[in-house]
Amino acid sequence: MMQFRYSIRHELGIHARPAGLLVKSAEPFRSDVRVVKGGKIADAKRLFELMGLAVKCGDRVTVTCEGDDEAEAAAALEMFFTQTL
User: Which of 8, 3, 1, 2 is closest to 56 using CA atoms?
Assistant: First the structure.
């Protein structure tokens, strides 16, 4: 399992548009990708689960990737978070 933590810098947090982009970034990977915030866990390949986390600017999330391509998934998603959120 690979994981990283990230503090959200986007002023609107993970709202609809970046959540959709996150789903598109996670979908190509075979690994399970999860976003965790305050004890809640969301599948990063499911838009409504991500939206249900209600992630706001300043919130800290943990992203976990587990599976055959976990290293590639973690690297790609960490770059996504850095560039987008």
Answer: 8
Question: pLDDT tens digits, residue range 41-56?
Answer: 999 999 999 999 999 9
**What strands, in cross-sheet order, belong to the sheet with 32-37?**
2-7, 60-66, 32-37, 40-43
**Model pTM greater than 0.90?**
no
| Nearest in space to 65 (alpha carbons), one of 43, 84, 38, 39 | 43
Q: Of residues 6, 10, 15, 59, which has the active-site annotation?
A: 15
Is there a catalytic annotation at residue 10?
no
Domains plus CATH for the chain?
2-84 (3.30.1340.10)
